[in-house]
Amino acid sequence: MEKETGTKPKFATKTSAKAESALQELFLDGIMDIYWAENHLVKNLPKMIEAASSAKLKKAIVDHLEQTKTHVNRLERVFELLGEKVLAKKCDAMEGLAKEGEGIVQGTEAGTATRDVGIILASQKIEHYEIATYGGLTQLDKTLGHDDVAELLYQTLSEEKDADQLLTEVAENEVNYKAAEEA
C-alpha cells in the first residue's frame, strides 16, 4: 500500500465533483483567454488594414474587424449566461501571433503584393488559433452542459472558418499571383 503524501492528485477523476469543477475552471480560463485575444485583435486589425494594399484584402480585414467586435460582445454574453464577471486573461499566443504579423509588415516593402501575402499568412495563423480555441471550447462546453453557450461559441467558430476561407480565396485569386510577378 502506498503511503499518503498529502498532495492533491494532478488530475481529478472523471467521476468526481472535483473533475467537473476543474473542467469548469479550465473552460472559464479559456473564455477569459479568448476574450483577451479578441480584444487585442480589435486594437491590432486596423494596423493590418492600413498596411494592406489589395482592396479585396483590406475589405476582408475591415469586415473581420467588425465581426471581431461582435465576437467580443458575444463573449460578454457568454460570461453573462455563465453568471460570471467579464474578465480577460492575457493570451500569450495571440500576443505572439500579432507581434509576428507586425514583424512581417515591418520586414516587407509598403504597397507590395508580397506584404499582402505576408499579412494573409499572419492572419490565417490567427484564424487557425481562433478556430482551434473556439472548436475546443465548444466541445468542452457541450460536455459541461451549457447548450446556450455552446451555440454562441459555435456561431463564432463558423465565422472564423469563413474568415479563413475568404483569406484563402484572396490569396489564391489575386495576391499570390501579383506577388509572384514582383521583382
| Uncertain residue ranges | 1-5, 7-16
Q: How many DSSP H or I helices?
A: 5
Which fold name is given in CATH as the topology? Answer: Ferritin
Mean pLDDT: 91
What is the CATH superfamily label?
Answer: Ferritin, core subunit, four-helix bundle
Strand content is under 5%
- Shape-level CATH architecture: Up-down Bundle
Q: How large, in whole angstroms, is the Cα Rg?
A: 20 Å
CATH class descriptor name? Mainly Alpha
Integer count of domains: 1
Derived from helix and strand composition plus strand pairing, the structural class reads: mainly alpha
Taken from the alpha-carbon principal axes, the silhouette is: elongated
H and E string:
HHHHH
Assembly annotation: single chain
Approximate helicity band: over 70%
Largest β sheet strand count, sense and barrel closure: none
Strand tally = 0
User: Terminal Cα separation, in Å?
Assistant: 73 Å
Describe the protein.
The protein is mostly helical and 183 residues long. It has one domain: Up-down Bundle (Ferritin). The chain contains five helices and no strands. Helix 1 packs antiparallel against helix 4. The radius of gyration is 20 Å and the shape is elongated. It starts with 16 loop residues before the first helix and ends with a helix.
